TrEMBL record:
Protein encoded by which gene: nanE
Catalyzed reactions: an N-acyl-D-glucosamine 6-phosphate = an N-acyl-D-mannosamine 6-phosphate
UniProt name for this protein: Putative N-acetylmannosamine-6-phosphate 2-epimerase
Family as reported in the entry's similarity comment: Belongs to the NanE family.
Stored CDD domains: NanE
Pfam families, per the entry: NanE
Enzyme Commission number, as recorded: 5.1.3.9
Amino acid sequence: MSDGVLDVLRGGLVTSCQAYPGEPMRHPETMAQIAESAVRGGAVGIRAQGVADVSLIHERVAVPQIGLWKVGGDGVFITPTLAHAVVIANVGAEIVAIDGTRRPRPDGRTLSETVRDFRNESSALLMADVGSVADGLAAVEAGVDCLSTTLCGYTDERPKSDGPDLEVLAELVSTVPIPVFAEGRVHTPAQARACADAGAWAVVVGTAITHPATITSWFSAAVGSPQH
């Protein structure tokens, strides 16, 4: 897989099509339909999780897909091992997103070892989901193809901001030689524009587009509790 995939995504919107465990929309067909709708709306790429979802979306849409596999919900859980990364690549993800923090990985490999061994198994690109500038620098040293600010505010290194972590985004953009994607708490078009203005290669938006339960809760809270 060439860096041409990254060129396709440059300057555009990537829509994250994911549903939490136990939700009614947690189904590959539903996620694939949402992905198709997102592409109609102008998404240049899709981010999705899980073998079945990534596989079906690969069949349904022509745009590049950032695939991942969430295992658990604490610590290193975004495509946590080499084995998970290889499977996601094999079912059709052009880019595989992996935990790119400096935390211990479940299979005992370092991030550098994971990247090295992945290169022997697949031609897909690797995206490191990072939680800080230090994570990003270490991931670049490990040899990943691109970074995403996905985990900013979800590790101990950064406070969780109300919107995207523009500080980390801007510093990484000005420091590293590889593309940096903005992801995490991008809830409005204005915030997406701010990410683009900060130099993001592309902006990833999930909840604000594809998670009806959360979107409904925003409006419900604004309206107030119903009177009976």
